[in-house]
Design a protein that fits this description.
It contains ten helices and six strands, in the order E-E-E-E-E-H-E-H-H-H-H-H-H-H-H-H. The longest helix has 27 residues, at 95-121. Helix 3 runs antiparallel to helix 4. Strands 1, 2, 3, 4, 5 and 6 form a six-stranded antiparallel sheet that branches. It starts with 16 loop residues before the first strand and ends with a helix. It is 55% helix and 17% strand.
Length: 268
């Protein structure tokens, strides 16, 4: 998935390694080479293809997370963890290519997203849509752009297009990473407010699978179930929220309301 906010870093810091607590941590742009034999006999020859990767060493110090560059020189697509020993043997640092080719592209993408987010904030929704679409032309898996475009569609009342974005987002693991928590919370709430209740439930279910225990996700899912008229499922999610945080006042009040309503319905 598209790596977020990297372009905001000082380019000089994106070398092959960086200092971290006295240890040198791998971070930056690297390449691998693949040698292939083409043809047979006297016409055979070797071809060398180079592939570029954005790499960050994991906190465990034993693995390195690598992500390929797309055709626009943006880190995008699936991330893979490589044992550090294997990484050091196979990957070569590419600081010059990063400075000349990758960093400027990442800065431009970041600037496009900042314009889009400001325009959405200002209510200029069609301008925001244009900027988000420009960003997605460069990196179709960019999480900020996908969330932003989906929110823009919902704010315009275009639920069909918002649903298309929802279908894309639930397949992106990176959408539910802690760094995007404020975005995925806002997106889920807006799905419910846009009366996309089935999508909201599916979305929160995916979020619960992908994140650490979060009482607010269960609370928000309960509200979506309530809007769908599924009281039992709503009650279950509120109980889950209170198991995680017994002091969640809104969940406790909501649960009390639901239980009384269910009792009244049974007694009718």
């Amino acid at each position: 998935m598209g790596r977020e906010n990297v372009a905001g870093d000082d380019a000089a810091s994106m070398e092959a390694t960086s200092e971290n607590g006295g240890q040198r941590m791998i971070s930056g742009l690297f390449s691998t080479q693949n040698v292939e034999k083409v043809g047979t006999g006297t016409t055979s020859r070797k071809t060398i293809s180079k592939m570029y990767w954005y790499a960050i060493e994991r906190p465990d110090g034993e693995t390195v997370e690598v992500q390929p560059l797309n055709k626009h020189n943006i880190p995008s697509g699936p991330k893979t963890e490589v044992p550090k020993e294997d990484f050091l043997e196979r990957f070569s640092p590419e600081p010059e290519y990063y400075q000349k080719e990758v960093y400027p592209c990442m800065r431009e993408l970041d600037a496009t997203l900042e314009r889009a987010e400001q325009q959405r904030k200002d209510g200029a929704l069609y301008s925001a849509q244009f900027e988000y679409e420009q960003a997605l032309d460069i990196d179709e898996d960019n999480v900020r752009a996908n969330f932003g475009l989906g929110l823009t569609y919902m704010e315009r009342g275009d639920t069909n297009r918002a649903n298309d974005i929802f279908k894309r987002l639930v397949t992106l693991d990176a959408a539910f990473s802690p760094e995007h928590k404020h975005l995925f919370n806002e997106f889920g709430i807006n799905l419910r407010k846009s009366k996309l209740y089935d999508q909201a439930v599916d979305y929160y279910t995916r979020a619960v699978e992908m994140t650490d225990s979060d009482e607010n996700l269960h609370y928000n899912m309960a509200r979506a179930f309530f809007e769908k008229g599924q009281a039992e499922e709503c009650k279950d999610q509120l109980q889950q929220a209170l198991l995680i945080n017994p002091d969640h006042e809104e969940a406790a009040k909501f649960l009390d309301f639901i239980e009384k309503r269910m009792e009244a319905a049974q007694g009718a």
